[in-house]
Amino acid sequence: MRPVGWEALGQWGADAVRVEPLSGGVANDVWTVRVDGRLAVARLGSRGDADLAWETGLLVHLDRAGFTVPAPIPTTDGRLFAGGLVVMPYLDGGPPETPSDWQRVAGTVQELHRLTRNWPQRPGWRSSTDLLHTETGTRIDLNRMPAEAVARCRAAWARLSGRPTCVVHGDLNPGNIRMTADRVALIDWDESHADVPDLDLALPFNAAALDDATHDTAAQASAAWQAAVCWDDDYSRRRLTEVRPA
Questions:
Q1: Which domain-ending residue is among 89, 112, 141?
Q2: Where is the Aminoglycoside phosphotransferase domain (predicted)?
Q3: At 219, which helix (H) or strand (E)?
Q4: Distance CA 13, CA 111 (A)
Q5: 135 and 58, same structural domain?
Q6: Nearest residue to 86 (alpha-carbon basis) of 47, 136, 128
Q7: What is the pLDDT of residues 121-156, one digit of tens each?
Q8: Cβ–Cβ < 8 Å for 86, 52
Q9: Among candidates 41, 44, 46, 47, which has minimal Cα distance to 22?
Q10: Same domain, 159 and 237
Q11: Cα dihedral sign for 48, 53, 58, 63?
Q12: Can you give the residue range of the structural domain that contains 24?
């Protein structure tokens, strides 16, 4: 039987060791680790093999295309994950702060969308427009939300119907962005899935330079998505207030 949980870290070498926990993880246990003498980040969660294969395969694809992402560090026998554990390089940098920082982020996100047009859906997930006709998908369960809240969310997502899809990062808060003078790196791909690109483009300072109508559609759809994914806590209820009544 292959090791599971943190015992699986040994699959990255006899000297692989946990260093200290990292804050910010909700669905996962995340630590800095040392693998082959290098500082790295390890994430342990409950996602199944098909889900992890989708995410790690996406990161390998983006890395090979020159995109700065935490591409998985393989085990000693070449696997990209083991026992629910993924090990990735540690990426330094700071969060975006200024309008020009966010414009750089927008360009990076739009390149992500270009590189992943018509990407297959993450196993078990649903896109925002899928949720017009179904109630559940991974962390979303519309049955847990009040009927009026569901109607508001679906009205926002309905405005995206018929648009092309790609991979969206799904959680572009400043803590998931690592900037240096010469590159923008996106980390924490746990919420990435195939969807309409608008969900990633309601950025601060309207950094993606959307016209008023497109920005409104993106902002409404994104707020509805975050409300549904995080329901039921203070953050999700606050995001729901940003979604206009149906």
A1: 89
A2: 19-239
A3: helix 212-230
A4: 35
A5: no
A6: 47
A7: 999 999 999 999 999 987 899 999 999 999 999 999
A8: yes
A9: 41
A10: yes
A11: positive
A12: 5-89
